[in-house]
Amino acid sequence: MGSDTSNAPEGVGIIDNKSDPQYIQFRCLPPGAYYNLTYLNLLDSFASWPVRFYGVESRYAFVSSRPVGGSGGAGAMLYGAGVPNEDMMKHAPHVGVATIWWEGNPLLFVGYVLLNGFSTHLLEFGKIVKRGLEKQKMLAWQYNAVGVSDAITMGGEGMRYSLQSRDLIADSIETVTCAQHHDANISIPGCDKNMPGVIMAAARHNRPFIMIYGGTIAKGYSGLLERNINVSTCYEAAGAFSYGTLQAKTNAGAAGRTPSDVMSDLEQHACPGAGACGGMYTANTMATAIEAMGLTLPGSSSYPALSPEKARECERAAEVIKTTMEKDIRPRDLLTREAFENALVITMILGGSTNGVLHFLAMANTAEVPLTLEDVERVSNKTPFLADLAPSGRYLMEDLYKIGGTPSVLKMLIAEGLINGNIPTVTGRTLAENVADWPDLAADQPIIRPLSNPIKDSGHIRVLRGNFAPEGAVAKITGKEGLSFTGRARVFNKEHELDTALSRGEIPRDENLVLIVRYEGPKGGPGMPEQLKASAAIVGAGLKNIALVTDGRYSGASHGFIVGHVTPEAAVGGPIALVQDGDTIVIDAVRNRIDITNADEAELDARRKVWKPPVPKIRRGALAKYARLVGDASHGAVTDQWED
């Protein structure tokens, strides 16, 4: 897009030639221009890229479109907010530092472990970044966006707010960046929805950008089970508790301990400090994928939250954002088709979360990069599953960090031709250049298998279609649970109905059942809640005769024979709404099919004629608004996509 001056007052700048005309447009100074204070009031230099000041070459300078000679209130407010002098008011770039921080979540608040004089959680990471920006003679503005703890809300009504928080985070950062005319943004997310939220925001505002992942949590340890644990262990233990199979190890210290004692021990020791859930769950899935896309510094996705490397990454961010500004590297320069292909490949290699599919589709939609479920299917079919990482494997992200982390994995995958190392990154170098100096994966390390000996020849994430899900469903099938399943349907109209049945031990072991949880899609939930409580209870109880299917989502910690994201969802009359108890459901991960085999189209049409949509119980507030706006899961469940 060329520069547009048609609506700009004479001499007050041009439209940024990298902005998207679908979003609000901002005037900017031409490359290399100086501020002319005869026509541009001093206060209009707010949010200006530096113009040969402070050691940075200007490319563009975003300026406000306020009338010449207008009120001086903006400058007064900025001085009051801490701008130290007129020189910085004129020339220093304004960089927003967005942290997704709040009390009540291990990654985002807990963990006052002193490292070089500062405590390491996201709020403090933001302060480190702010200090670094100030050393680079930039103006840093730290602020916050809201978040939701999936682990705390899991299985409750609060989980309905989880997915909508992704779009709320994107809205929040877009709002602050554009309203305050920030020249660049550094976002510091931690948990699952935080990361796609900040990337979607970056694709909207398209200002120079870096993401710093908050980092992974350390392992917990249970003395009563005598093994390493994490938060997912607690959910699986709940299933074992309900079915009478949870017990302590037979050691001297565990004598006389009850299953309730074991549950208490797990809860007290699963989360030993700051950091995102430690397996290849959604947070680590998104972090590794975004690193493979070139939007973070090398190593960001595998540095533990409390590691010295994570603190140093925060310190280095100011230097790198300066590079992105000098070279005019924008998010949409990096959010390319090739980058999304990298994201899909590393997700398949590492055994990542099905949530990744939903978020990649949403991120691509925002960046206007064509990406569909067919692309997910294509990449899955050609990409092996190599990583022995939780939830289906033995190791955690902390272990991957110790053998070289994500950069060493990327280095190997680039050498093997599976990852595109030529994509540009926020550092100004290619992905291959970023990882070139990292150590090779040791031949005897047990976490990442060689291509000659994969866990599974193709990806664990399968896109299924059939008369059950005509517009697609997403399954997570690693192969250890088999590649096909046939069972009798047992239908639950909300997640809590299944949770209650499992807690009472009412799901039998002696019959193949396909448990169907419906009316939990983006509109029907509303909010498309995760079904970890149920899926983990099934695994913990040892119910290998069960497949679980939903129009909702799964946590990255979920595993077993699970199918989610069924589209069309029940709330809009999809076939999942027509299933009846006793129907035969066939799931085939080789043919990529999911079908109701005892009901032909005539039978389904007859059921459809008598089906009535449920009356929404939530009619006001954030969730009601979300249900009105949200699209379907097969297109990322975004809230800003409409037919013209």
TrEMBL record:
Pfam families: ILV_EDD_C, ILVD_EDD_N
Annotated pathway: Amino-acid biosynthesis; L-isoleucine biosynthesis; L-isoleucine from 2-oxobutanoate: step 3/4; Amino-acid biosynthesis; L-valine biosynthesis; L-valine from pyruvate: step 3/4
Keyword Nuclease applies: no
InterPro entries reported in the protein's UniProt record: DHAD_IlvD/Edd, Dihydro-acid_dehy_C, DihydroxyA_deHydtase, DiOHA_6PGluconate_deHydtase_CS, ILV_EDD_C, ILV_EDD_N, IlvD/EDD_N
Domain Dihydroxy-acid/6-phosphogluconate dehydratase C-terminal: residue ranges: 447-637
UniProt GO MF annotations: 2 iron, 2 sulfur cluster binding; dihydroxy-acid dehydratase activity; metal ion binding
Any single GO BP term: isoleucine biosynthetic process
Keywords of this entry: 2Fe-2S, Amino-acid biosynthesis, Branched-chain amino acid biosynthesis, Iron, Iron-sulfur, Lyase, Magnesium, Metal-binding
GO cellular component: mitochondrion
Domain Dihydroxy-acid/6-phosphogluconate dehydratase N-terminal: 94-434
Catalytic activity: (2R,3R)-2,3-dihydroxy-3-methylpentanoate = (S)-3-methyl-2-oxopentanoate + H2O; (2R)-2,3-dihydroxy-3-methylbutanoate = 3-methyl-2-oxobutanoate + H2O
Xref: NCBIfam families: ilvD, PRK00911.1
PANTHER family noted in UniProt: DIHYDROXY-ACID DEHYDRATASE (PTHR21000:SF13), DIHYDROXY-ACID DEHYDRATASE DAD (PTHR21000)
Family from the record: Belongs to the IlvD/Edd family.
Official protein name in the record: dihydroxy-acid dehydratase
Upper taxonomic lineage: Eukaryota, Fungi, Dikarya, Ascomycota, Pezizomycotina
